[in-house]
Amino acid sequence: MPAEPSSPQEPTAPADVPSATGAGPSLAHAVSWWAVRLAAPGAVPWALWGLVPPLAAIAAGAALCFLCLVFLAPGDLPWRPLRPSGAAIVLWDLLLVTVLVAALFLIVPGHALLAPILLTALLVLIRLKHWIRLTGEPHHRAATGRRLRWLATGVAALLLLGLAFPLHPEPIRAAVDCVLPSTAPWSGSRWADAAPPAADTDPEHLVGPARWAVPEGERVVAGHRDTVVLSGGEGFVVRAADDGRALWHVGTGRLRSVRGASLPGPEYEPGRLHQVGDTVIAEYRVPGDGDGDGGRPQAHGLAVGYEAATGRLRWCGRGLWNLVSDPHETARFAARDSRDGHHWGLYDAADGGLVARVAAHSWDSSAGVADPDQDRMLLGDGRATVWSGHGYSSYAVDSGERLAAVAAPVDLDRTLSGLLHVEDVTVLAFGPSSADGTGDRQRHERYLLAAHGADGAPLWDSEGTGPLAEGEPVVGSTFDQCRGQDEDFGVVSHRGFDGHFVALDGARAEHRAVVVRAEDGTVASVFDSDLFMAGCSVRRYELDGRLHLGSGAVLDTGGVVRRPENPLYAELVTFTGNGVAVRTGSASTFHALP
Predict the structure, then answer these.
(1) Over 80: is that where the pLDDT of 18 sits?
(2) Fewer CB atoms near the end CB (10 Å): N or C, the chain?
């Protein structure tokens, strides 16, 4: 009998080549890839915690677990619930690695990231051969298989290149740092709405009625139009100016929950808050990876701009620190940039864009070069002035155009110790000359004031001898003894009013003070300076030609208009662009400007 025709043989695949029913990767390869499958669902909720609602973070991890079970390759488990194509398995594996790497960048600090990244790279190399086999299954057309092989190889190469980013992670770190301080209504404890003011908190010397009050622990730091910014140890909150409703907040607990209290990330520093127009700007500190001077950890600044009404993130400026603003300025602020030698720049508050780079040493500093960290910035009256002990440079706030550059005269043998703007006049304060000693000079005669026009042209100085008297040119005197702690947070301690400024006859609080006309240096009035010095540590504010002090005192060109009951331990008054906050006892009451 003729032999029965044999049935065609099914092609067999080598043991390590996956097919619909064939063997998969070796047991070692399968077990190693389960490390990625388990790490990704655990890392993603950790990275998302605080950025999204908790249930969403947990759901993301659960979804990854489910998809890992769906896209199993032959041999990954003895039994597979579904049998997806090899191409689908490869694409899912690549996506899973990408998600894991992104999560690691969020949760692992600095160079410590290298260890898990290198381990992931090793697992990718082990899996790469299996990906090529998966895209070579018999039922694939040859052209499709080649394309998938190239795709798998190319994406794997890009991932391996990305794994080297911990060696220079600046772009990714910048993106991460700018995400963390964003607002989220579900994070942290909710700030309570403000309470109505007490019946007896409407003093006559304040210019507007009391609107609302908050307990001790919240400090009014800025405001404009319809919103007020308050700082506290747990973050900051923006309230409605009319009734104190809490509109939005950023909590320190949120930052800790995302990165962990000991991991590098944005750290909130109470008090470093500004409101410029309808933008709230918060300054954060971000620790670096290396060591700075004296073995201290390096750090850089991070300035974040929020929409005042909603808390929406408008812009993020990595490297910006030491911000300076002014309650009367509604479009610009100044800041140092740690990426550019810590030089000053003028920035637009609406988008954080650089208006002009300010050269810290544009004058001819023949007396020596000051440490750039000792340069100060004064913003106000349409000008931005950078100054140190050796001179100053002024710039137009709107355009950044340089208006003046003046070096302190070497022959004065004095150091520039204070500077203020009074409309178009720049007033300078110099310390005592090293040759003065005590001698026969009166206390006020050992100091020196000088005034320049907006272009830097000299107007007058107070060199000479004689008493301080009304109607006479000012002699000696100073105002630099009252810098105030808030100046460290970019708040101007000195302020002119109605074309005048206040000078002191010495460095001690019980001495006299004089109101001086800025354009010609004439003394307008003389009064006891304990009242003035009591308000040194807080802001001053000019309103309707009067100077309001943080002690509660009010001055005009004729002298004292209102004296606080206890000038040395008076209520703490803070002025914003839209109101006045008075702190008495354990509460702070906000008074809106008319």
Answers:
(1) no
(2) N
